[in-house]
Amino acid sequence: MKSITMLLAAGMDAKGYTIVPVLIDPHMDLEEKRNLQTLIGEYETVYNNVILSDGKRLNPIPGFFGTDIADLAKLNGQQNDISEPIAEKRSFGQYLNVGNLNSEDVNKYLVQTMFSQSNLDNDLSVGFKGSPNVGTVVLGEMIKGADWFQAFCNACQKGDRIFIISSIFGGTGASGYPLLEKKVRNSTDHPNVKDAIMGAVSVLPYFSLEDPSTTDSDIDSANFLTKTKSALAYYEQSVMSDYIYYVGEQGMKTTYANDEKKQEDKAHFVELVAATALFDFLSKTDKPDKTQALSRAIKEDVESLSVSSLGDAYNNVVKAVADMMMLSRLVYFLPNENQFPLSKNRGFDEDFYTDKSFVCLRNFLARFSEWYQELAENKRGFAPLTIPDPNDRKAKLSNWIQDFSLDAKDESYYLLDMIRASNKDKDDTHTIKFRRFLDYVYKAIDKYTSKIM
């Protein structure tokens, strides 16, 4: 979802759909979940600064931040986080009420056969610790009793689509995906939900974790492939989505810290590929007669991916990321550009560059740059850009996208095309300078990076 948010910010085409994320994670205090919620909130702030004018709601502009990411609670007129009930503070054993079973009760033997003592001792407030057999039991009840699903049914309209994102080698994702599918397809009281075109991306193993014996963790990544095979065998007979995307790695090339509480994993190329599945799904026009299984490949099996080693199918992703990184460079460059005529005839002056809209954009771009850097440095790396130091005003920008030579040799080329876009702007329906800025700068960048396509 983080990669989806970044690609939407960078101008990837969502075919006019509004994206309404529902985050299902029983790990109550996971910092990464809060970070994602913050990122989505920052995206929406930038988006609203583009489309809201004097109480009116304007159409989105093509390019940067061109898709609405809406909050399910607000769609239903609620202010609170309606996904909050998806949490459980007891151990799994307490949840099953094992303590009240007689020692000779056959049900106690059944529980001991199906679950280890470690499973029963698991604190459910930190999730299912990679145990789909636990998640299958608990998550179904969590979904059944959660307010968000009813809110989702109330908001879902004819023509809306459903897309489920999950991993297959852990606990929550592997167990939650089929449960959600059944919940959707059994919603007979809500035909807009039951009959919706539904897609899913299931992420296969792409990283390993440190030896659990050295970190006192219950999660052992040596079991990831075994769990994946078991889940795939079940999915083969049970998938109810119209389109199912499988994304993973041939081998687990990177190892993360085995810290259940923090899970401070860096952004990874596989997550980026999984994000592109949503955009492919939204481009589908028909509901197939039976489930269609899809995946993606790269052209060359190399550790650090450039445009040529990715293959042409990724050019739209490279362009989106490149556009955003150039925007980041221009946002850094423009406030100190004294000769820029737009400061005179469009009001892009010191007040504009210190306004909260521009500051919010700058902060989001800092997150984007950090995200790209993590992608580039991870294994396998997504590194199609060679970005000069923004403080180097003499840096040549012709070859900053690998395998391409662009006509814009430095920032002045982009500034000149922003001026040209400004001169052609005859829209008098609003007075949002920030909207005009993003429109001009996208047109200027696109003039040169469209060569990638």
- Major β-sheet, in short? 4 strands, parallel
Structural class: alpha/beta
CATH topology of the largest domain: Rossmann fold
- Terminal residue distance: 25 Å
Counted beta strands: 10
The coarse silhouette is globular
Give the domain tally.
Answer: 2
Q: Kindly state the mean pLDDT as a whole number?
A: 85
Order of helices and strands: HHEEHHHHHHEHHEEHHEEHEEHHHHHEHH
Residue windows where pLDDT falls under 50 for at least 5 positions? 79-85
Oligomer: single chain
For the record, the CATH architecture of the largest domain stands as: 3-Layer(aba) Sandwich
Strand order of the largest sheet: 3-4-6-8
Approximately what portion of the residues adopt beta-strand conformation? 5-15%
- Please give the count of helices: 20
| CATH class placement of the largest domain | Alpha Beta
The Rg value, from CA coordinates, equals: 24 Å
In helices, the fraction of residues equals: 40-55%
What tags apply to this protein structure?
453 residues, alpha/beta, Rossmann fold, 2 domains, 10 strands, 8% strand
Give structural notes.
The protein is an alpha/beta fold and 453 residues long. The protein folds into 2 domains: 2-89 and 124-296, Rossmann fold; 314-452, no CATH class. The chain is built from 20 helices and 10 strands. It has a 4-stranded parallel beta sheet, with helices on both faces. Strands 1-2 form a two-stranded antiparallel ribbon. A two-stranded parallel sheet has the order 5-7. α7 packs parallel to α9. It is globular, with a radius of gyration of 24 Å.
